[in-house]
Design goal:
alpha/beta; 6-stranded parallel beta sheet; two-stranded antiparallel sheet
Amino acid sequence: MSHALIVIDMQVDFCPGGRLAVAGGDQIVAAINAMMPDAGAVILTQDWHPADHASFADNHADAAPFSTMQMPYGAQVLWPAHCVIGTPGAQFHPDLDVDRADLILRKGFRAGIDSYSAFFENDRTTATGLSGYLRDRGITDLTFAGLAHDFCVAWSAMDAARLGFRARVAEAACRAIDLDGSLAAARDAMTRAGVTLA
């Protein structure tokens, strides 16, 4: 039981018709479900933002969605409001096998800081607790899938490698936003970080 499948943010708002839709995001649900029986553990992450979240363009005067703003912790893409706590868009895709999950980890609930990675807030120091959970269960090998390949999946996989886990991204079970070449940049960064792209 040393292997876990980490499913990143398979939520309604990230799928077609959602507030921050990733093209083809709904097309990977079946592939993710098919991977679950072979995993020793399944962890689902869930973006879980308050309505006043600092990463929402609507919360900054004259800020356009997908523009970048400097925050105390560094550069932050300003997103359309998405995955607001308690809204239908924050729920998991209805076809995702949620019952198979050992753990559901909510992230991004602090209003002042975004959280791409399953392991850390975007300040790179505030931990989510996932690393300790995995280590306590003796899990050493992680496979990542979900949305979006070039942001939350990539940051999670790179943090996993940095923390000493064997990290693999199942690219066929991911979809990307690809904002100004962000997918190619993320793939290069993951490779340099020691993440296996498969």
